Amino acid sequence: MESKRKEDYLLFLEHVTMRFGGLVAVDDFYNGVRPGELLGLIGPNGAGKTTVFNVITGIYTPTSGRVYFRGMDITGLKPHVITHLGISRTFQNIRLFYNLTVLENVLVAQHHSITNKDADKFLEKHGFEKKGFGSMWLGKAILKTPGYMKLEKDMLKEAEELLEKVELLEYKNELASSLPYGMQRKLEIARALATDPQLILLDEPAAGMNPQETEELMRFITRIRDEFNVTVLLIEHDMKVVMGICERIIVLDYGKIIAEGTASEVQSNPKVIEAYLGEWEHVS
Amino acid sequence: MSGTIFLQNLFNGLTLGGLYALIAIGYTMVYGILRLINFAHGDVLMIGAYLAFYGVTLMSMPWYISVVVAILGSAGLGFLIDRVAYKPLRESPRISALITAIGMSFFLESFAVVVFGGIPKSFLSITPRFLKKVVVVFGARIQVLTFFALATTVALLALLLWIVYKTKIGMAMRAIATDIPTTALMGANIDNIIGFTFALGSALAGAGGIIWAMRYPQINPYMGFMPGLKAFIAAVFGGIGSIQGAMLGGFILGMMEIMIVGFFPQLAGYRDVFAFVILILILMFKPTGIMGKKLTVKV
Amino acid sequence: MERRLKTSTKVYLTLGLIALSILLLYVASKTLDTYAIRILRLIAVFGVMAVSYTFINGITGLFSLGHAGFVAIGAYTSALLTMSPMQKEMSYILEPLIWPLNVIQTDFFTATLAAGVMAALFAFLIGYPSLRLTGDYLAIATLGFSEIIRIMALNMQSVTNGALGLKGLPEYSNIWWTWGWLFITVVVITSLTYSSFGRALKAIRDDAIAAEAMGINVFKHQLMAFVISGFFAGVGGSLYAHLLTTIDPRPTTIGVMLTFYLLIMIVLGGLGSITGAIIGAALFAILSEWLRFVEGTMHIGKWTIHGIPGMRMVIFSLLFIITMLVWRRGIMGMEELTWDKLYNWILRLRPRRKEG
């Protein structure tokens, strides 16, 4: 493999290894996501794809190796800090706030911008401008000061605009739990977008969908990439899903990267074929 | 502390620890299977003591028969509590079952106040005379009851281990503690196994309650609350879900409680605090306890 | 289709309701007997405690069983501030009260504020280590802390007067103080619940991992909610002490029993609803007075039925268990009573015109 310069990447995992006891879930991961691309991370079940996500988003601290985002070393930062820096995600088994409405789900994702002091300090330390509206003093929320009311109004406007773009505005007052499955997936992506990310991680967004829904979702993902100007890292178990839309694909097997390249390159790679052997039938 | 007093404390600590162990097993077995803190477990202990009391005073049974009846009664009560209050909530959020358990505890206590009266009753008339005798061991004056309690506890713990590890139902209990759906697939009746677990734990709690009542010869409707909480702490200390852990935790906790007061009599008033301090320290630093397994949250 | 009222209409309605409440309370204070007024005051005191309890248990979704501990801290703090130095000297017969508590005396409002602040401080100290725990472990740890507080109160003779407790407190908690504080509690808790902060709390309740992934500092938010809830529990404790005029460190007054009572209130009212907490508090206060008849002796014709002491609590606990088993949403579920809901409800009551 050619040598990589981490400066060329928006997110770069430098020799990241994640061990759980004796199990090596991710083994010396050395790769990253380039600005603006739509990258697919694929592999058979248990290959360690979700673990990579959990390492990137700070749920796990890697056993060894560093994670760089926008040139900042974000290894070991807390998930909420990492989100504020600009990485957002969805979950394999949808994790919406089910007792909140569609609108509230999106509003919650904006909350970090008014109160995430740790992350803003980190951003300033690295020479970036801090995000958000500044500090939120709870007293203002209790007294409903004009400044606070304006803040709420702006958040509401932004949330509604976002919901409009993803065609969920008409359901804004419905409880998230009352949405059909496909729309829940969509809402989860919308919620992730509401955190104002530069990079969005989608964990098997097509899981549990029929082919038609999947196709629609793939179009949706390409669309949001352009409309929201985000870089997308997509995990998929089913190869067919990512082949159509991903510009570059990384294949993971038993925690190791076994191949990297365009869809056609990866598809013809003998190692990949071997790894997917049992599951190949429904791919082609 | 002189040698004889130390010896006395040693026996007291062992007995108290044994009682905590007996009660802790019910908590740990239920938690291991259902992830539920059975708040009402301590109150089963209280009901057990009252049953033994009324068996002798009202039904004029000999004490040993009354004790057996009370233990069976406790087992039945434990089974019933599960069926009525917890079983309907198996599929609900875990916290719902916990809230219901608190309600059940509250119900048993207020029920006892209504039926048995709120005034403490002396248990001395129930305790057979030979247990009240005092023997001198290396200069330390120790009640026969202490040895009896200790021997009974150890025998019961041994019996429990035999049931859990050598019988078919014990194997089923261990199986569902690992994986309920798989065990169900293998054709086992989950509800009966859970019911049996409750009954078994409650029988031990009932026995513990009777010994408790003999040692601190008084019973009242709230007597189960503190021992129940401390036994739960013992279970957490030992590693929740682990039976051996609960036994070990019980003995350590009981011994610690007696010894701290033994060495620092001025702390006697704070006696009930120690257990909670230990609980909080354990939860902070080693929530899996001494012998527990790590539970991870899947993301 | 849900119809919504204009914001200005809602503001007028709210102001009207406040004026009406003041008027009603005024009329009540002039016409009702002391017994009925006592129940009214009790409703407000329980209301303060229940609303602050549901803020942590229902809205933030942290299952705490330590609320009575904060109530206790508040009760002792304010009692020590409102009692006169002479009264203190006479009460502390075993060991004198330590300086400077033995000479300080403040007015009731200051004492209540201090009670809140002290309870909030304890909430911070307790929350900081225990909020790392989740679910039932948190429940047990907070229960443990509240028991520790009670046992400390029982033993720290020179501060709390130990088992003797404090007696003869001035009966400051009149109808205005109690309902006034309930009003403040409801305004503050409601504003917070319906702010961005409150949404974040509810998100944490629904799914803490997802909330963290959405950039919310879960621990910090939970801790803030815990401290705010502790503050109002302390206020409730101050009001409670000056309603009962005595405090003693028994489980039934400031111990685990009180937490159970509060749990009954918020579960009956609907876990997660502020309106529900108030309804639950009112129900509990009224029912526990009304149910006294089952414990007293009754005469029906020539028959005399002897009451059963303790029967009230049996009824409450049964009600509680049944609620959990068959009607878990309680009276309000997670909903609130709002003007919009009332408006829509009234619209539905009117005979419907033909459509189309």
Describe the fold and architecture.
The complex is a heterotrimer of chains A (284), B (299) and C (356). With 284 residues, chain A is an alpha/beta fold. Chain A has a single domain, classed as Rossmann fold, CATH 3.40.50. Helices cover 40% and strands 21% of the residues of chain A. Chain A has twelve helices and ten strands. Chain A has helices at 49-56, 79-85, 102-110, 112-115, 117-125, 138-143, 146-165, 181-194, 211-227, 239-245, 263-268, 270-275, and strands at 11-20, 23-33, 38-42, 64-69, 72-73, 87-89, 199-203, 231-236, 248-253, 256-261. In chain A, the strands form two sheets. Chain A has a six-stranded mixed beta sheet with strand order 6-7-8-3-9-10, with helices on both faces. Chain A has a four-stranded antiparallel beta sheet with strand order 2-1-4-5, with helices on one face. In chain A, β9 (248-253) and β10 form a beta hairpin. In chain A, α3 runs parallel beside α8. The model of chain A has no long low-confidence stretch (mean pLDDT 89). In chain B, the strands form two sheets. Chain B has a two-stranded antiparallel ribbon. Chain B has a two-stranded antiparallel sheet with strand order 2-3. Chain B is mainly α and 299 residues long. Chain B is built from twelve helices and four strands, in the order ααααβαββααααβααα. Chain B has helices at 3-34, 41-57, 63-86, 94-116, 129-132, 144-166, 168-178, 180-185, 190-215, 225-238, 243-263, 271-285, and strands spanning 121-122, 134-137, 140-143, 218-219. Chain B is globular. Chain C has one domain (35-160, 169-339): Orthogonal Bundle (ABC transporter involved in vitamin B12 uptake, BtuC). Helix content of chain C is 71%, strand content 2%. Chain C has helices at 7-31, 34-59, 67-82, 85-91, 108-130, 135-155, 157-160, 175-193, 196-206, 208-213, 218-244, 251-254, 256-269, 274-290, 292-295, 311-326, 339-349; strands spanning 298-300, 303-305. In chain C, β1 (298-300) and β2 (303-305) form a beta hairpin. The longest helix of chain C has 27 residues, at 218-244. Chain C is globular and about 70 Å long. The two termini of chain C are 15 Å apart. The mean pLDDT of chain C is 90. Classes of the chains: A alpha/beta (284), B mainly alpha (299), C mainly alpha (356). Chains in contact: A-C, B-C. The interface between B and C is large, with 44 and 42 residues.
